[in-house]
Design goal:
three-stranded antiparallel sheet
Length: about 80
């Protein structure tokens, strides 16, 4: 699983930043179930990107000392850097 969700294509030209707080039930193998968005700042596409990232096959909750149970994580989005020409 990639370490972060993709920046939403819909916002590529906007220079928009975002923040998503998500809650998931983490199983013993670090797979996730029952994810829900707790807070989305910057636009709904950021929330959609996080949920799409979490349901990828092989998705695993990242972090140290992760134990089974309910966990909350906040993901920050920064606009992609524009190539210098």
């Amino acid at each position: 699983m990639r370490s972060a969700p993709n920046y939403p294509a819909a916002y590529q030209d906007t220079g928009r930043s975002g923040q998503v707080t998500v809650q998931c039930n983490v199983l013993a193998n670090r797979s996730v179930t029952d994810c829900q968005l707790l807070k989305v700042i910057g636009g709904d596409e950021f929330g959609d990107a996080v949920l799409a990232w979490l349901i990828l096959p092989g998705a695993r909750w990242q972090g140290r000392n992760v134990h089974p149970g309910v966990h909350v994580k906040t993901i920050f989005f920064k606009p992609p850097s524009k190539p210098r020409g």
